[in-house]
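re: that chain from earlier
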Amino acid sequence: MKPELRKTVPSPLSPVEFDIPRPFKTILDNGLDVVLFEDKRLPLVSYRLAFHSGDINDPTDHTGLSSAISSMLTEGTEDYTSLQLAEKIERLGSSLHASSSDDFTIVAASSLSLYSSEILHLLAEVILRPTFPEDELDLYRRNTVEHLKFQRSQSPFLADEQASRLIYGDHPYAKFSPAAADIEKLSRETMSRFHGETYVPNNAMLIAVGDVELDEFLSEVEELFGDWQQGAQPWEKFVAPPKRVSRTLTLVDRPGSAQSNIILTNLAIRRTDEDYFPMLVMNQVLGAGASSRVFMNLREEKGYTYGAYTRLNTKRLAGDIEATAEVRNEVTGDSLKEFFYELERIRADNVGDEELDDAKSFLTGVFPIRAETQEGLTNLIVNQHLYGLHENYLQTYRANVDAVTVDDVRRVAEKYVLPDEMAIVIVGDASEVLPQVESYADSVEIYDTEGNLK
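^ sequence. v structure.
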């Protein structure tokens, strides 16, 4: 007997509640910010020791230095070799790693709360007493240079490199990747000196999330980090990204390539901009998911690509919006036509009520899910505090999304989606692609895959 088919659409589930308490905050005498969010749901703890400096703070003649230092922190300290440290972390069933981004450097550790003291001690060890061993540094140099060679064989890397250069100009956000020469000249002396200048407590924030007792935690933090000496905060004033006044085309020639990688981009907003939530909703409608306008147009209707998207890159000092897709060579020009159609439409016409509601429902629905795991909740809290967002940012996130109106979406689209000023970047076979796309720009430049103007 066949089951009876449902004749009506089921009613939606009740919204998942998201009402978390505010964390405890204090500052040590040496300037180290300390944030603790107690979460007793699971016997886990996550630590983040984050620095308010990142790749943009690299010296002009040492691109890649911050990234190298963060990678080398766990490769040897005064008390542990790289192997000893890895074995100890493994025995604890824990994790400890570091990485740098444009704006920040973060050392992350997590473990069962049973071993919270041990992993916190190891976190302090790699922060305060790294030795940058020469044998490990040599291995880092060789591996990184080989990885850079591999990156240059990848279209997305080449497209992002040119897009960053065009949008950010002389601002350090344009330094998309170091060159092999930058990596080969890394030295222990340079790394140790820069580490001492930037890894200082008044440039840092220690964030703990999980099954931690406040008094015990603060006592241990004071013991481990209380004698850490202050330094000069590495704040710099950078030149502003250039003001674009025309639409340009930059083509990276890859002879024989069967497809084109497309990016269309212009400057937009910083992470702390007051238009962040309207932009978030606008981008959701335009191209953030599989039901968005550009995806439905270029993939579902036209069949030009497996996926077409837009995304916001919101950083501490600046930001951009970009539309991107990988398409077949023969439809590169047609794809640009559809991209610009959607970019103009989001500016010229009001979004529909249903379209707006769907975008807001997705954003508000997925937000509490991101906090269901220990790492997800930790990342939300870390981002809130690193960017200096309002103290009730997480608690009011969904209300801020829900408050976005049709007029808000139209306003920010008109203000920040700028088709006539966009940088068009295409990586593909110039002989096939250029005749299709040169009419879309006021000027054209062609580069090889090494970044040299042809």
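The longest strand covers residues 305-314.
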